[in-house]
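cron nightly-structures :: item 1 of 1
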Amino acid sequence: MALDDTKTLAERILRLEQKLQRLEKREGRPSVELFDNSAIRNRKIIDDLLVHNHTHANLSGLDADDHTQYLNTTRHDTTTRHTLGTVVPHDDHGSLSGLDDDDHSQYLNTTRHDVTSRHTLGTVVPHDDHGSLSGLQDDDHTQYLNTTRHDTTTRHTLGTVVPHDDHGQLTGLADDDHPQYLLRTDKAADSDKLDGVDINAFKGLNSLTDPNADRVLFWDESAGALKWLTVDGIVGTDLGKWQSHTVSWTAATTNPAIGNGTLVGRYIVIGKLCTYVLGLVMGSTTTYGSGNWAFSLPVNAVNTAGINFYGVAHLRKVGTANYERIAEIVPANSVSVINMFTDPTQGSNSTKISATVPFTWGEDDALGFEITYEVA
């Protein structure tokens, strides 16, 4: 209360006293003084009524903080000031008397948010398991696609959703709506050929096995494919490679028999060209037959009128003499054997070899020839 307010109150009391005195005077009763006039005049009463400081500590016998059972601004969150333990910091539920940090188990918290064992009614379940919800299953929305029936047309009765690999099942489309492209089947005749050669025959270099040797790339017309040609022949084929030939040794009347002797043939074919070599060494049990000898060819010779093929032959009578002959294939007589061995001596008419020509054959005697000819 302000000083002026206190003064006004004293004056009102004084006026009230004066009114009482006038009333008592009219009624003949003794006057009653509520205040001492001189005291009011020297403002003693006013001074007594004045409250100079509104602090609690200015009251007689009191201190500024005599009500420790209440909170104030300094000890609002200081538990040490509250010996009864009834006032605690607001952020620690477990510090309240008789309570724990987790007394409201009917609610979810961060630790048991998805723990179904804490929810006995089964009404709160992990959010990622649709089938665990009461009355629901994992696949209650059959109107939608899922990973298992994404391409199962039987689940889509309207037929608007179809497997993505069947163009013809899309509404308004057919299986063959792109006639500007070739089909894998029912293609136009020779549509996949280049210069009349099937496209599958054109093999890139990457499709050829590397022979790891010097080679030449060429087109094999008979195979309709690119191939490598090396010094050992054509890679992937027997063409251009030396091969063994099982020689058939015959005679005009009785066929010879090699017995324990040696008879081998080797040949190589490159394109239409064949080179053929033969080696014959008589053994102790070799028999020589009767009549002029003939040896089979590995590949039949071409028969062109007027053309024979010539090579060289060497005959040796062991320890005695050597004889040279001209090996000759005469296709007009036979395209499958060589049976002409012409004596090159001027004026000689000898053209055959037999058990006694040009000498009587015996153990360790030898015959060999080489000839190149065109194959049929």
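cron nightly-structures :: done
Confidence is low (pLDDT under 50) at residues 39-43, 49-53.
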